[in-house]
Amino acid sequence: MVAHHPAEPGALVSAKVLVIVGIVVAAWAALGITGPASPGGQLTADEPQYVLSAISLGEDRDLDIADELAEERYRFFHRANLPVQTEVQDDAIQVSPHDPLLPTLLAAPVFVGGWIGGKLALALLAGVLAAAMVWVAVVRFAVPVRVAVVTVLAFSMSAPLVFYGTMVYPEVPAALAVTLAIAAITGPLERRGLLLAGAAVVALPWLSVKYVPVAAALAVCVLWRRRSPAFAGALAIAGVVFAGAHLAWYGGLTPYATGDHFVGGEFTAVGNNPDYLGRSIRLVGLLLDRDFGLVAWQPAFLLALPAAFVLVRQQPRSWWVLAIPFAAGWFNAAFIAFTMHGWWWPGRQTVVILPCVVVTVAWWAATRPYAVRALGVLGGFGASVYAWLVAQAAIGDLTIVTRFETISYPLVNAWRFLLPDYRELDARDWALHAVWLTGIALLGIVALARPRLDSVRQSSPSESRIQGATST
After folding, report:
1. Is the model's pTM score more than 0.70?
2. Which pLDDT band holds residue 265 (cuts at 50, 70, 90)?
3. Which of 151, 196, 199, 298 could form a disulfide with 158 if both were Cys (CB 3.0 to 4.6 A apart)?
4. Gap between the Cα atoms of 259 and 265, Å rounded
């Protein structure tokens, strides 16, 4: 096996910078806490289920939410009746069909501060995630501090990351786990690094079984760098514990076994008769869809395309630690997820792997001043979209989840007009789809056809350091 070494360390980043970034992102995300998610509900879709499970864990020390449902504890954050999600078991127990780690993390904040306490805890985690991405970009991929901060703030203060900083879903904790795993794998992978990587890998399925492909990709990266029978054995034991606990708590290998709407069995959560050929359009739609694509709400995600092409061409040290989990997560979102259009903020299925995107863009922008300026401008645009949407929700013209597309912001609506609607796909949408695909293909051809630049640039000391860290 070819030996792979961690990235040469870049400049240090001060704790003060990390704390400031974390506070700014957490405070910005917290602005959206009071915005209604749907008519009559501060939380909607799966969010009430997670909060009810957190209440049960905090008060009863179990996952049975039958008493919380009977007492209508959800009325504080969802005035309408909740859609039924749980199947009543023989002993009258009702367990929400969602993995237990997020409710466990939120049990104490919800016990102390109710649903608002839970959302504040997630906003804090969003700040920690932003700080962690800055650290990884600077220390592991030799990105200058200023570039790393600008890049991370541009994405963290925009959709979808900023929205999942307060939405009660496992997306931000999962993205944090991925970031910590990348930090461990690209560093000195000794005992402490293995423990951190292992904890992150094991945590992902407990946050949601849908993260198993990303967890597996990260495990492969660990074992690719270091053949550790102990690590592989520990993961095997963790898998047995996961399966055993789920069989005991949920009656199946996944929490979907307790869901009343998976009448064909727990594995129909991916669809009763999945059309995988039809789902292939999501490979582009996840990025470009007019309503649910990443680019619709933050055009800076377009910069991920040239960044990814250059990453593959130049193959900087440890580049595969970004590429492999990203590929696993993107294909999972495209082909395994039930839908990319759901009752959540757009981009939900991709949030777990967005740290790979953010660090890649930061690495690419490090030697391109025009890209840093573009990130600053687009970051401001993305933040303004969030601010407008939160303000519009506050005056009652919009709900953040069920009617987000009714946003009245002229700039974002003019931009979204240029994107295809993959739910309709009329002649105009197919034409836009063809135009965008052609542009992406040409960009890829240009980027991959250029000669490698590993040893070409020799300019300033800082740039030489960056180039040294990006050589293979």
Report:
1. yes
2. low
3. 298
4. 9
In three-state secondary structure terms, 86 is: strand
Count of Cβ atoms closer than 10 Å to residue 443 Cβ: 15
For residues 240, 243, 249 and 252, what is the CA-based torsion angle, rounded to 10 degrees?
A: -160
Enclosing domain of residue 349: 15-451
Beta-carbon contacts of residue 13 (< 8 Å; ≥ 6 apart): 134, 135, 138, 139, 145, 148
Domain membership of residue 458 (yes or no) is no
Round the average pLDDT of the chain to a whole number and report it.
Answer: 86
Extract the tokens encoding 213. 């492909």
pLDDT in tens, 369-390: 999 999 999 999 999 999 999 9
Q: Would the pLDDT of 466 be above 50?
A: no
| 164/122 Cα distance (integer angstroms) | 8
> What total of structural domains would you count in the chain?
1
* Cis peptide bond upstream of 48, omega within 30: no
3: in domain:
no
Q: Is residue 466 part of a domain?
A: no
| Rounded percentage of the chain residues whose pLDDT exceeds 70 | 89
Q: Which residues pair with 64 in a beta bridge?
A: 95
Helix ranges (DSSP H) in 157-273? 161-164, 171-185, 191-207, 212-225, 229-250
Nearest Cα residue to 386 out of 375, 398, 374: 398
